[in-house]
C-alpha cells in the first residue's frame, strides 16, 4: 500500500459577494478531482504553471485548506474526514516546507522558539533542555550553527532561512514532507545547496517528499515520479526519466519543449511548441478536457468528454483521448492553436507571427474565460509571478548538483 | 556524489555560516528600540512628554501659589477690562478672578494627563478585546468565525460613523457633568478605532505563511493567536495608543471647553482654563494662550513620539 494516497480530491473555493452576509455566487475549482499515490521513500514531483492548483493541492493534503470532497489517505487513515483533534496529532507525520523562507518564519520568535513550538505541541521531549538538545542535532543536520538558537529569522540569509524551515519540519520526525516551491525564492547558487540537502536528508532519514515546483530542472533532479497539473487536474504522471524523455500529453509536450537544451547545436535544430492564450479561469473551467482551448491537437470529442487518467504503459498515466493517435502521427498539430517554431529562426519574428496568428483563434475560445477572469478571486493571482519562469526553466540546479 | 562527501559539505557549510556571527540574537522589539533611540523625532517627543509628566506629578507641590485661592481678586476689574499680565510674582499673570495663572497651569497638567491616559486606556483595552475576538474569529474560526467577525465589525462601523464630539457630548449629557464622564466619552470614541486597527492587523498577519506553518505543526488555535498572530499585530496599536493620547487630550479639552467637564470650575484643567479665558479674549488674550500652547505642545510631543515609534517598529514604512 502506498504511504500517501489521494482519491479524487477536490478543493472548490466559494466566491462570496454581499453587503451584510456573503452569498456564494460561484466556485473556483482550484483542485478538481486528483488521484495519485506516493510510495514510501520516494519523491513525487508536482509541476504546472501558476494558478493550476498545485499549491492548493499541497495545502489540501495537510488540510490547511478545506477539502471539498475526496480522500487523503496517509498510511491507512483518511485525513479528510478526521476530526480536528485527531488531525492535530496526525500533523506530526505530515510536514510542510514553504516557498517564502522569511514569510514562513515568525519574525518575533527566535529560532529555538520556532523549532520547539511544534515539539511542545506534540509532547516531544520532556522539557526545554531535552528539546534544545534535539534541536541542536537537527540544526547540525541541516548545516546551521548551534548559536543560531537565540537568533531571529531576519538575521539569516535566504538559504539559511529555508534550512530553518526544513529543520522545523524535521524536528517532528515526519513521514512525509510537502515541499511547496522549496527553492524558487532562493538564489540559483543556493538552490542547489537546498536541493542537495533535501536529497541527503531523504537518504538518511527515509523521508517521503511531495515536491511542488514550476522549475522543471529542479523537479527532474529531485523526483522519482512526476505529475503534471493543468487547471486543477493531473494531465500526466510518469516516472521522472520517462516523462522527460517521452512526454505524451500535449500540455506536457509544450511544457518540456520550453526547457532550453544546453547544447547550441541541438537547441538550434529542435522544434518548440508555443502555446497561445492564458490559463483559463479556474472559476469557469472549459468543458470536457480542460486543455482543449489551448491544445494544438484538439478534436470535437475533447470539448465534450473529460478524459480520465489512463495507463499507457511503463507507469505512464495520461489524461488525453488521443495519446496514441498523436504518438503515431495520425493526428497532426493544428497551427491555429499553437505554432511549432524552429528555434533557429529569428526568435522575435517567429514568436510575433505565431502570436498574431494564434491570437485570433484564441480570442474566440477565451472570450468567456476572460470575462470570468474579472470575477475570479485572488487565489489565482498569488502565483502570477511564476508564469514566466516556467517557460525559462533553469538548468543550473541540475548542473550545480 | 557519495553520502559521506555530502555530509562533509554540509558540515563545512555550517562552519562557514558560523563565522562572523555573534551568538546573541536581536529581537525585533530590541531593534525597534535601538532605532527609536537614534530618532530625533522620538527624542524631542520624549523630552516634551517627560517634561509634561514631571509637571503633572510634581506640579501641585511646586506651584508657588494656591491655584484656587482668589488671592489677588482686588487687582482685577472685569467691568473695566483691567487684567494683570505677567509680573515677577505671577509669571503668567492673573486670571479673571485674581488667581495665579502659573500655579493653575502647573496643577492643571495633572488633570489633563489623567484625562488623556485614562480615556486612551478605556479605548485601548475595550477596543483591543473586541479587535482580538473579531480578528481571531475571522482568521481561525472558519465560516462561523467569519460571521461573528462580520457582526462585530458592523457594530464598530456604526460606532465609527458617529461624529466623535457629538457622541462624547451625548454621553456626557446622559451621564451628567463630571471629569469621569469626559474620560468615558473620549474613551468610547476611541474604541472602534482600536478594534478595527487590531482586527485589520491580525487579518493581515493571519494570512501569512508562518501562521499556516504553525497550523501545519499542529499548534492549537488559541496558542497560534497568542504566540504567532498577536505579537506581530501589536505595533500599529502601540503607535495608535500614543497618537490617541494626543487626540484624547485635545478632545477632553474640547469637551471641557464646551462645559461638559468637571462642574467645579475652580479645579484647574487646561481645557477649562481655555474655556474660561474665551470670554475675556479681547482684554486678556494671554489667559487663553498659556493653556492652549500647553495643549498643543503636549499633543505634539505625543504625536512626534507616536510617529517615531511607527517608523521604528516598521522601518519599511519610512517614506
Task: Describe the secondary structure blueprint for this structure.
The complex is a heterodimer of chains A (401) and B (319).
Chain A: E1 4-17, E2 23-38, E3 43-47, H1 54-61, E4 69-74, E5 77-78, H2 84-90, E6 94-97, H3 111-121, H4 128-141, H5 158-170, E7 176-180, H6 188-205, E8 208-213, H7 216-222, E9 225-230, E10 233-239, H8 240-245, H9 250-257, H10 264-269, E11 271-275, H11 300-304, E12 310-311, E13 317-318, H12 323-328, E14 338-342, H13 347-375, H14 386-391, H15 396-400
Parallel strand pairs in A: 3-8, 3-9, 6-7, 7-8
Antiparallel strand pairs in A: 1-2, 1-4, 4-5, 9-10, 10-13, 11-14, 12-13
Helix pairs in contact in A: 3-4, 3-5, 4-5, 5-6
Chain B: H1 3-18, H2 28-37, H3 40-62, H4 101-140, H5 142-161, H6 164-175, H7 179-206, H8 209-217, H9 221-257, H10 270-278, H11 286-313
Helix pairs in contact in B: 2-11, 3-4, 3-11, 4-5, 4-7, 4-9, 5-7, 6-7, 7-9, 8-9, 9-10, 9-11, 10-11
Keyword list:
heterodimer, A: 401 residues, alpha/beta, Rossmann fold, 2 domains, eight-stranded mixed beta sheet, four-stranded antiparallel beta sheet, 15 helices, 14 strands, 37% helix, globular, disordered C terminus, B: 319 residues, mainly alpha, MetI-like fold, 0% strand
Q: How would you classify the helix and strand content of chain A by structural class? A: alpha/beta
How would you characterize the largest beta sheet of chain A? 8 strands, mixed
The CATH architecture assignment of chain B turns out to be Orthogonal Bundle
Mean pLDDT of chain A: 81
Task: Indicate the radius of gyration of chain A in whole angstroms.
Answer: 22 Å
- Strand arrangement, major sheet of chain A: 6-7-8-3-9-10-13-12
> What is the string of SSEs of chain A from the N terminus onward?
EEEHEEHEHHHEHEHEEHHHEHEEHEHHH
How many helical stretches of chain B?
A: 11
Count of strand segments of chain A = 14
- Remind me, CATH topology of chain B? MetI-like fold
Amino acid at each position: 500500500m502506498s504511504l500517501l494516497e489521494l482519491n479524487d480530491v477536490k478543493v472548490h473555493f466559494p466566491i462570496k459577494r454581499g453587503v451584510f452576509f456573503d452569498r456564494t455566487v460561484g466556485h473556483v475549482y482550484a483542485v478538481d478531482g486528483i488521484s495519485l499515490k506516493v510510495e514510501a521513500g520516494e519523491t513525487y514531483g508536482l509541476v504546472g504553471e501558476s494558478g493550476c492548483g498545485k499549491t492548493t493541492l499541497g495545502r489540501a493534503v495537510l488540510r490547511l485548506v478545506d477539502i471539498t470532497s475526496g480522500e487523503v489517505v496517509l498510511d491507512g487513515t483518511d485525513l479528510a474526514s478526521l476530526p480536528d483533534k485527531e488531525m492535530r496529532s496526525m500533523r506530526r507525520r505530515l510536514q510542510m516546507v514553504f516557498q517564502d523562507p522569511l514569510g514562513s518564519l515568525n519574525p518575533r520568535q527566535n529560532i529555538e522558539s520556532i523549532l520547539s513550538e511544534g515539539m511542545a505541541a506534540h509532547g516531544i521531549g520532556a522539557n526545554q533542555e531535552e528539546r534544545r538538545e534535539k534541536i541542536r542535532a537537527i540544526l547540525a543536520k541541516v548545516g546551521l550553527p548551534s548559536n543560531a538558537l537565540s537568533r531571529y529569522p531576519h538575521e539569516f540569509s535566504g538559504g539559511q532561512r529555508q534550512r530553518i524551515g526544513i529543520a522545523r519540519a524535521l524536528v517532528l520526525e515526519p513521514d512525509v514532507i510537502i515541499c511547496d516551491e522549496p527553492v524558487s525564492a532562493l538564489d540559483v547558487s543556493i538552490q542547489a545547496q537546498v536541493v542537495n540537502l533535501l536529497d541527503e536528508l531523504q537518504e538518511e532519514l527515509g523521508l517521503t517528499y511531495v515536491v511542488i515546483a514550476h522549475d522543471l530542472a529542479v523537479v527532474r533532479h529531485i523526483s522519482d515520479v512526476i505529475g503534471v497539473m493543468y487547471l486543477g487536474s493531473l494531465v500526466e504522471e510518469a516516472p521522472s526519466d520517462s516523462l522527460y524523455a517521452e512526454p505524451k500529453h500535449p500540455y506536457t509536450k509544450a511544457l518540456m519543449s520550453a526547457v532550453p537544451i544546453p547544447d547550441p547545436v541541438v537547441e538550434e535544430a529542435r522544434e518548440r511548441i508555443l502555446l497561445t492564450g492564458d490559463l483559463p479561469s479556474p472559476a469557469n473551467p472549459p468543458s470536457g478536457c480542460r486543455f482543449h482551448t489551448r491544445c494544438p491537437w484538439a478534436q470535437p470529442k475533447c470539448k465534450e468528454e473529460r478524459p480520465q487518467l489512463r495507463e499507457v504503459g511503463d507507469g505512464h498515466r495520461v489524461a488525453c483521448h488521443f495519446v496514441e493517435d498523436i504518438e503515431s502521427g495520425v493526428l497532426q498539430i493544428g497551427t491555429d492553436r499553437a505554432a511549432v517554431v524552429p528555434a533557429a529562426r529569428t526568435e522575435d519574428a517567429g514568436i510575433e507571427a505565431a502570436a498574431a496568428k494564434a491570437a485570433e483563434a484564441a480570442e474566440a475560445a477565451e472570450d468567456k474565460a476572460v470575462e470570468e477572469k474579472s470575477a475570479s478571486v485572488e487565489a489565482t493571482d498569488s502565483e502570477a509571478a511564476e508564469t514566466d519562469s516556467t517557460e525559462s526553466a533553469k538548468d543550473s540546479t541540475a548542473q550545480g548538483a | 556524489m557519495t553520502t559521506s562527501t555530502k555530509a562533509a559539505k554540509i558540515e563545512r557549510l555550517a562552519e562557514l555560516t558560523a563565522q562572523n556571527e555573534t551568538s546573541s540574537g536581536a529581537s525585533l522589539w530590541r531593534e525597534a528600540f535601538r532605532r527609536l533611540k537614534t530618532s530625533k523625532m522620538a527624542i524631542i517627543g520624549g523630552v516634551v512628554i517627560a517634561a509634561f509628566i514631571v509637571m503633572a506629578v510634581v506640579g501641585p507641590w511646586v506651584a508657588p501659589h494656591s491655584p484656587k485661592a482668589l488671592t489677588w481678586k482686588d487687582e482685577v476689574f472685569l467691568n473695566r477690562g483691567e487684567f494683570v499680565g505677567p509680573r515677577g510674582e505671577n509669571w503668567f499673570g492673573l486670571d479673571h478672578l485674581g488667581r495665579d495663572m502659573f500655579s493653575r497651569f502647573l496643577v492643571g497638567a495633572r488633570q489633563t494627563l489623567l484625562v488623556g491616559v485614562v480615556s486612551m486606556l478605556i479605548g485601548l483595552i475595550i477596543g483591543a478585546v473586541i479587535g482580538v475576538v473579531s480578528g481571531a474569529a475571522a482568521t481561525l474560526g472558519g465560516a462561523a468565525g467569519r460571521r461573528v467577525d462580520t457582526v462585530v465589525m458592523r457594530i464598530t462601523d456604526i460606532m465609527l460613523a458617529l461624529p466623535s464630539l457629538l457622541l462624547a457630548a451625548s454621553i456626557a449629557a446622559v451621564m451628567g457633568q463630571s471629569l469621569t464622564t469626559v474620560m468615558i466619552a473620549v474613551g468610547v470614541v476611541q474604541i472602534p478605532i482600536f478594534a478595527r486597527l487590531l482586527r485589520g492587523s491580525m487579518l493581515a498577519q493571519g494570512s501569512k505563511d508562518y501562521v499556516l506553518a504553525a497550523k501545519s505543526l499542529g499548534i492549537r488555535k488559541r496558542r497560534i493567536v497568542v504566540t504567532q498572530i498577536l505579537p506581530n499585530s501589536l505595533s500599529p496599536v502601540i503607535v495608535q495608543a500614543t497618537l490617541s493620547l494626543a487626540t484624547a487630550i485635545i478632545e477632553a479639552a474640547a469637551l471641557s471647553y464646551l462645559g461638559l467637564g468637571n462642574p467645579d470650575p475652580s479645579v484647574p484643567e487646561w481645557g477649562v482654563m481655555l474655556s474660561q479665558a474665551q470670554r475675556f479674549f479681547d482684554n486678556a488674550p494671554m489667559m487663553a494662550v498659556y493653556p492652549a500652547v500647553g495643549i498643543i505642545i503636549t499633543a505634539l510631543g505625543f504625536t512626534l513620539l507616536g510617529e517615531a515609534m511607527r517608523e521604528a517598529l516598521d522601518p519599511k514604512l519610512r517614506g
